[in-house]
Amino acid sequence: MKKLRDRAAELLSQGVVSLVIGYEEGTKRPRPLFCRNSEGAEKLIFDSHCFHNLAVYITKKELVGKERFAVTAPISTLRSIMQLYVENQLSEEKLLVITVDLSGELREFTTFDEIAAYVAQFELKRGEREQEILSKIEGMTREERWKFWMEEMSHCFKCYACRSACPLCYCSKCVVEVNRPQWINPWPAPLANMEWHINRAMHMVGRCTACGACGDACPVGIPVDLITRKMMEDLAPEFGYVPGQPAKQGNALSSWKLDDREQFIR
Amino acid sequence: METKYINKSGIEQWFNAIVSSGKRVFAPVNSRGQVDFKPVKKLSEVADEYIQTTQSIKASVYPKAEVLFSYEKVNGKVNLTDFDPESVAETVLWKVHPCDAAGFKPLSAIFNWDTADKLHNAHLVKTSVISFSCAAADESCFCTSVNGSPGNTAGSDIQLTMLPDGGAIAEILTFKGETLVALMPNVFEADKGEKKEKYLVDLPTRFNLEEVNAKLNKAFNSTVWKEQSERCLGCGACAFVCPTCACFDIQEDAHGSKGRRIRCWDACGFAMFTLHTSGHNPREHQSQRWRQRILHKFSYMPERLSVVGCTGCGRCSRACPVDMNILEHITSIAKQ
User: Fold this and answer.
1) What is the pLDDT of residue A266?
2) A209: containing domain
3) Which residues of chain A does B281 touch, with a Cβ-Cβ cutoff of 8 Å?
4) How many helices and strands (H and E) does chain B possess?
5) Based on the domain organization, do A133 and A40 belong to the same domain?
6) C-alpha distance from B155 to closest chain A C-alpha (Å)
7) Residues A172 and A198 in one domain
8) Across B184-246, where does the E strand assignment appear?
């Protein structure tokens, strides 16, 4: 912890970066922290409880400004950073990424290739919670699954915490806010909620890195993260990429190849 | 106002009588790992061990989505069907916390500050509130700092304070309360003289409301808004679980020559909330939206509507994905 605080203070005082986005103790669990001076850096923490995906902040221009900044990143955040890079949302010149490796050592990444190489060491596995709920859902018939999700979605009140917490939901105008034409009914109602969540899922296919931020953010406890996670798991082998690793060949549903094996796309 | 005693089996008989009377009864139910208000038929469905429901009881008098009117064009003539107050069912809210019951006053103040809101008032008239005083609280609760208390009766028609014998002290507070008692008057016995305060959780005040108000009056240009809101994600979780947040949007459910106009929940924390058609946004940054949220509740509402827009229920703090803890933020403003 001390190493991280000292290094962050150093980066800030030397003017290498103007901002370090990290974690501090919260009232119930660690929460995001924005440090702009060494005093702020003293509050930094980094441990296994730090699981907010800080990559959500690094595309917000009003927060990060024009100068170079640093972000402390556990594996899930590193995966999102790689995906944002693949989608041309980040530049190496502006971003310094810091993590603490398994041996407790501070590691700094200045290039995305370095991050990709580091992330490649970690296999994306289902946690206990994901395994429990997904295996239950996988055992259901199509009708049972629809019923399960309709019931879950009926609790959605469209606060859009799932969207706000997702680092990959960086669109300046979301499809749910488009009203000419209005693709999705914007008020909360069971079917209108399902429309929103199907749209969200479709926009995440081949992009979601399974950080779980959307599910964690949902105030009414809908496991929304498992929809995009399951889609990623199902889709990865078909499109030849590894879950949790950047899709270097482009995102599954937004890239197109002349030699695609499917006829309909030509 | 009259105080009575009701024993354990009396509570159940009375509850059943309310259900049998044909009124809708909403009560906290534990399902999917969350406790929330749902329609109930039996007392056994009502949740026991919890501090706070995830969502407030607000939706019972301010539905998440409600049809203002519907329309249809037939042979060049437009037929309008207005909201019908008679369509609202008689409703009893069972086991409401005092902080939720206290939320009806600020909510109604907003909906009636100029033109009386027909929809909200129609729900309110048909709603009776049976609150339960609080014997427990958690670190997010702060009703005592915002003019409330674990035994606050404001907004309640009847308040029950549970006793160790499974019975309760019943404070019958309004005519609506008397009407509910009249459904089974014989289970209400003479008051045993038990002091209700003995059974309430001790919740020390965390800040001085006048002090906060005075600080906020000078805080519009303070840097505190940016400092506090940097981590805010700009979602609507805090507003949607809040018992007093009343921001709404008007949407059109149009299908050819017919349709419905719908009022649905909105939130001042959303970037789109104040976005003009021109592209200009008077609250362009999240810090300005956070400021609006706090000032509206703790400055504008007390000033204009003579009521604080916060009941200290703590739901926003519990629901926030990034720990925008309102108690922490207000306390820090008070100390500035």
Assistant:
1) 66
2) 128-239
3) none
4) 12, 12
5) no
6) 25
7) yes
8) 188-190
